[in-house]
Protein backbone atom coordinates (compact mmCIF):
# COMPACT_ATOMS: atom_id res chain seq x y z
CA UNK A 1 0.00 0.00 0.00
CA UNK A 2 1.25 3.49 -0.92
CA UNK A 3 1.02 6.24 1.68
CA UNK A 4 2.18 9.83 1.32
CA UNK A 5 2.83 11.78 4.50
CA UNK A 6 4.51 15.09 5.40
CA UNK A 7 8.28 14.90 5.76
CA UNK A 8 9.52 15.21 9.33
CA UNK A 9 12.98 16.08 10.66
CA UNK A 10 13.28 12.54 12.06
CA UNK A 11 13.21 11.17 8.49
CA UNK A 12 16.11 13.32 7.26
CA UNK A 13 18.83 10.67 7.78
CA UNK A 14 16.89 8.20 5.62
CA UNK A 15 16.14 10.89 3.04
CA UNK A 16 19.80 11.88 2.95
CA UNK A 17 20.78 8.25 2.31
CA UNK A 18 18.39 8.01 -0.66
CA UNK A 19 19.61 11.38 -1.95
CA UNK A 20 23.24 10.27 -1.87
CA UNK A 21 22.42 7.08 -3.78
CA UNK A 22 20.20 8.67 -6.42
CA UNK A 23 21.24 12.27 -7.07
CA UNK A 24 23.80 13.66 -9.54
CA UNK A 25 24.61 16.47 -7.10
CA UNK A 26 23.32 15.33 -3.68
CA UNK A 27 21.95 17.87 -1.25
CA UNK A 28 23.54 18.32 2.18
CA UNK A 29 21.75 17.70 5.46
CA UNK A 30 21.75 21.45 6.19
CA UNK A 31 20.03 22.13 2.87
CA UNK A 32 17.31 19.60 3.70
CA UNK A 33 16.95 21.13 7.15
CA UNK A 34 16.46 24.58 5.61
CA UNK A 35 13.48 23.20 3.66
CA UNK A 36 11.54 22.39 6.82
CA UNK A 37 10.25 25.96 7.15
CA UNK A 38 6.60 26.95 6.84
CA UNK A 39 6.60 28.01 3.17
CA UNK A 40 7.77 24.58 1.97
CA UNK A 41 5.60 21.55 1.47
CA UNK A 42 7.56 18.32 1.64
CA UNK A 43 6.23 14.78 1.53
CA UNK A 44 7.54 11.23 1.67
CA UNK A 45 6.20 8.12 -0.01
CA UNK A 46 5.91 4.95 2.06
CA UNK A 47 5.28 1.60 0.38
CA UNK A 48 4.67 -1.40 2.61
CA UNK A 49 6.39 0.39 5.50
CA UNK A 50 9.48 1.40 3.49
CA UNK A 51 10.36 5.02 2.69
CA UNK A 52 10.71 4.88 -1.12
CA UNK A 53 10.80 8.52 -2.22
CA UNK A 54 10.13 12.14 -1.45
CA UNK A 55 9.67 15.62 -2.83
CA UNK A 56 10.45 19.10 -1.60
CA UNK A 57 8.53 22.09 -2.92
CA UNK A 58 8.07 25.71 -1.96
CA UNK A 59 5.19 28.10 -2.40
CA UNK A 60 5.77 31.81 -2.99
CA UNK A 61 2.52 33.72 -3.51
CA UNK A 62 0.59 31.83 -6.21
CA UNK A 63 3.55 29.87 -7.60
CA UNK A 64 5.19 26.65 -6.50
CA UNK A 65 8.67 25.40 -7.25
CA UNK A 66 9.51 21.71 -7.18
CA UNK A 67 13.07 21.62 -5.86
CA UNK A 68 13.66 17.93 -5.48
CA UNK A 69 11.79 14.73 -6.29
CA UNK A 70 13.64 11.47 -5.74
CA UNK A 71 12.79 7.78 -5.75
CA UNK A 72 15.21 5.31 -4.18
CA UNK A 73 17.24 3.62 -6.94
CA UNK A 74 15.97 0.13 -6.06
CA UNK A 75 12.36 1.39 -6.26
CA UNK A 76 12.56 3.24 -9.58
CA UNK A 77 10.42 2.15 -12.53
CA UNK A 78 7.38 1.36 -10.36
CA UNK A 79 5.42 4.56 -10.94
CA UNK A 80 6.42 6.14 -7.64
CA UNK A 81 7.82 9.25 -9.29
CA UNK A 82 4.48 9.81 -11.04
CA UNK A 83 2.65 9.27 -7.73
CA UNK A 84 4.83 11.86 -6.00
CA UNK A 85 4.52 14.37 -8.84
CA UNK A 86 0.72 14.06 -8.94
CA UNK A 87 0.59 14.54 -5.18
CA UNK A 88 2.81 17.62 -5.43
CA UNK A 89 0.58 19.13 -8.14
CA UNK A 90 -2.55 18.48 -6.07
CA UNK A 91 -0.91 20.10 -3.04
CA UNK A 92 0.02 23.13 -5.16
CA UNK A 93 -3.57 23.45 -6.41
CA UNK A 94 -4.96 23.14 -2.87
CA UNK A 95 -2.64 25.96 -1.80
CA UNK A 96 -3.97 28.18 -4.60
CA UNK A 97 -0.94 28.01 -6.87
CA UNK A 98 -1.46 28.84 -10.54
CA UNK A 99 2.03 27.96 -11.81
CA UNK A 100 4.62 25.29 -10.98
CA UNK A 101 8.29 25.56 -11.90
CA UNK A 102 11.14 23.07 -11.81
CA UNK A 103 14.65 22.49 -13.08
CA UNK A 104 15.85 19.12 -14.34
CA UNK A 105 19.20 17.85 -15.60
CA UNK A 106 19.25 17.97 -19.39
CA UNK A 107 20.30 14.29 -19.56
CA UNK A 108 17.59 13.04 -17.19
CA UNK A 109 15.34 11.74 -19.96
CA UNK A 110 13.10 9.71 -17.65
CA UNK A 111 12.28 12.75 -15.49
CA UNK A 112 11.80 14.99 -18.53
CA UNK A 113 9.35 12.47 -20.01
CA UNK A 114 7.48 12.32 -16.68
CA UNK A 115 7.22 16.10 -16.50
CA UNK A 116 6.11 16.42 -20.13
CA UNK A 117 3.45 13.73 -19.59
CA UNK A 118 2.14 15.83 -16.68
CA UNK A 119 1.90 18.89 -18.96
CA UNK A 120 5.12 20.74 -18.15
CA UNK A 121 6.66 22.73 -20.98
CA UNK A 122 10.27 23.69 -21.55
CA UNK A 123 10.79 27.40 -20.88
CA UNK A 124 14.57 27.77 -20.72
CA UNK A 125 18.02 26.36 -20.05
CA UNK A 126 20.60 27.17 -17.38
CA UNK A 127 24.13 26.39 -18.62
CA UNK A 128 26.36 24.35 -16.29
CA UNK A 129 23.77 24.62 -13.51
CA UNK A 130 24.41 21.25 -11.86
CA UNK A 131 27.85 20.51 -10.46
CA UNK A 132 28.44 16.89 -9.53
CA UNK A 133 31.38 14.58 -9.03
CA UNK A 134 31.36 13.76 -12.75
CA UNK A 135 31.31 17.38 -13.97
CA UNK A 136 28.71 19.99 -14.80
CA UNK A 137 25.42 19.72 -16.59
CA UNK A 138 22.79 22.09 -17.93
CA UNK A 139 19.39 22.42 -16.28
CA UNK A 140 16.20 22.61 -18.27
CA UNK A 141 13.64 24.99 -16.79
CA UNK A 142 10.08 23.71 -17.12
CA UNK A 143 6.75 25.25 -16.15
CA UNK A 144 3.14 24.17 -15.82
CA UNK A 145 0.02 26.32 -15.62
CA UNK A 146 -2.41 24.87 -13.08
CA UNK A 147 -6.15 25.15 -13.36
CA UNK A 148 -7.38 26.16 -9.92
CA UNK A 149 -11.04 25.65 -9.11
CA UNK A 150 -13.26 28.73 -8.89
CA UNK A 151 -13.82 28.03 -5.19
CA UNK A 152 -10.16 28.87 -4.57
CA UNK A 153 -9.93 31.99 -6.75
Automatic annotation (TrEMBL):
Where does it sit, as one GO cellular component term? Answer: ribosome
Q: Which InterPro entries match?
A: AcTrfase_RimI/Ard1 (IPR006464), Acyl_CoA_acyltransferase (IPR016181), GNAT_dom (IPR000182), RimI (IPR043690), YpeA/RimI_acetyltransf (IPR050680)
Q: Where is the active site?
A: 103 (proton acceptor), 115 (proton donor)
Q: Which residues form a coiled coil?
A: none
Which GO molecular function entries does the Swiss-Prot or TrEMBL record give? protein-N-terminal-alanine acetyltransferase activity
Please indicate which superkingdom the organism of origin belongs to.
Bacteria
Localization per Swiss-Prot or TrEMBL: Cytoplasm
Does the keyword Transferase belong to this entry? yes
Q: What class of enzyme is it?
A: transferase
- Where's it mainly located? cytoplasm
- Which PROSITE patterns does this UniProt record tie to the protein? GNAT
Q: What is its EC number?
A: 2.3.1.266
Q: Which UniProt keywords apply?
A: Acyltransferase, Cytoplasm, Ribonucleoprotein, Ribosomal protein, Transferase
Q: Where does acetyl-CoA bind?
A: 108
Q: Which Pfam families match?
A: Acetyltransf_1
> Which residue range or ranges hold the N-acetyltransferase domain?
2-147
Q: Which reaction does it catalyse?
A: N-terminal L-alanyl-[ribosomal protein bS18] + acetyl-CoA = N-terminal N(alpha)-acetyl-L-alanyl-[ribosomal protein bS18] + CoA + H(+)
User: What is the recorded function of this protein according to its Swiss-Prot or TrEMBL entry?
Assistant: Acetylates the N-terminal alanine of ribosomal protein bS18.
Task: Return the similarity comment.
Answer: Belongs to the acetyltransferase family. RimI subfamily.
Quote the protein name from its UniProt record: [Ribosomal protein bS18]-alanine N-acetyltransferase
Species per Swiss-Prot/TrEMBL record: Alkalimonas cellulosilytica
Q: Which gene encodes it?
A: rimI
Amino acid sequence: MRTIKPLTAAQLPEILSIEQQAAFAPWSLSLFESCLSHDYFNFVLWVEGKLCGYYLAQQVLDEATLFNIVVAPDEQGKGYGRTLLQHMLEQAKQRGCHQVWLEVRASNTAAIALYKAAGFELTGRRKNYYQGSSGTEDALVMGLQLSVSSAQT
